[in-house]
């Protein structure tokens, strides 16, 4: 059998990782400013993570959601504490798309409505409603195009208010820092105005924190920079450092009903052990603070580089979620960074380099990246 060929690949076979470094099968070392697409939060192969996950595997990998799972309960308490959302309720699943799917479903169960407002350039996943809320017609199959979603310009509060005032909107879903959409940031004015309008019109506000959350922005959640409290928060990616996991954080206003949501694998013992190990390391190593400080430093260095006129037209982002807009296509630059400089970066659209390194990224690594990037941009 062959693989279903949907991914354009770099010609590199990564076989090993440690911290912010990965190695290929020929022994070449790479600096990882991509974090396997924002997934590696605490660094590759952290010893505490390995220890916790392997000892859990020695005890019990999986049992169903029909019995008490003490690890889920512990995770709810610890995640509530570290995120400042102690009063929310936790529902665990296996991926980001599934988190958004359940969030939208819960919103609709609650207010009985079916319309969703989503932002232009938004990305919310590739399943049913999550893909419908994703503003990219190329990945919405005809079977997913069910007319539930209106896409509106990010930060255009009047446009969102006008739709909300019709009184039929089930949910608004936003990324406070758009990832796939190109590191576009929600303004405080938009966030607070939207939260108020959602309250006024009985609409559920969902913050998709799958990429921008879990410490990446330098606060636990990106919406916490904007002074809002969403009704529902969705997370995945960094939550378990690569073990497939997603979560929905649900405000106390929602009353659960038996059978309303459910999953076979979600919140299994192994996933919870991985997520608890992530929280341990984030706390012990102050990784949210590191993301804020190292991210600020890296942005400053990038702005200096921009002054020297090397194809950089804009630098934006927060913490360790940074976009470098170029006046040339990113593709050859990323290829040269991988093959000449042995550095992985992400991208968005045709001209944006997207940096999403593990949250343990250091200033020295930032300096190294600046040197190598400036070499490649001079070509
Ligand atoms: C903001 C956002 N939402 C949802 C998703 C979908 O997550 P998953 O690929 O785990 O389904 C992604 C993935 O890139 C994302 O960046």
Question: How is this fold's topology laid out?
Answer:
Blueprint: E1 14-18, E2 21-24, E3 29-32, H1 35-38, H2 47-59, H3 70-83, E4 89-93, H4 96-111, E5 115-119, H5 128-132, E6 149-152, H6 157-164, E7 169-174, E8 177-178, E9 184-185, H7 188-200, E10 204-208, E11 232-235, E12 246-250, H8 269-284, H9 287-307, E13 312-318, E14 321-326, H10 330-339, E15 343-344, E16 346-348, E17 352-355, H11 363-377
Parallel strand pairs: 3-15, 5-6, 5-7, 7-10, 10-11
Antiparallel strand pairs: 1-2, 2-3, 4-12, 8-9, 11-12, 13-14, 14-17, 16-17
Helix pairs in contact: 2-8, 3-8, 6-7, 9-11
The structure holds pyridoxal-5'-phosphate (PLP).
Overview features:
alpha/beta, single chain, Aspartate Aminotransferase, domain 1, Aminotransferase class III-fold pyridoxal phosphate-dependent enzyme, 379 residues, Aminotrans_3, 11 helices, PyrdxlP-dep_Trfase_major, binds pyridoxal-5'-phosphate, 19% strand, 4-stranded mixed β-sheet, Aspartate Aminotransferase, domain 2, 17 strands, 36% helix, 7-stranded mixed β-sheet
Q: Overall 3D geometry?
A: globular
**CATH fold name of the largest domain:** Aspartate Aminotransferase, domain 2
Residues in helix, %? 25-40%
What structural category arises from helix and sheet content? alpha/beta
State mean pLDDT (0 to 100 scale): 98
Uncertain runs are none
N→C terminal distance: 41 Å
CATH superfamily of the largest domain: Type I PLP-dependent aspartate aminotransferase-like (Major domain)
Beta-strand level of the residues, as a percent range?
Answer: 15-25%
Q: List the helices and strands in order.
A: EEEHHHEHEHEHEEEHEEEHHEEHEEEH
Arrangement of strands in the largest sheet: 4-12-11-10-7-5-6
Total beta-strand segments: 17
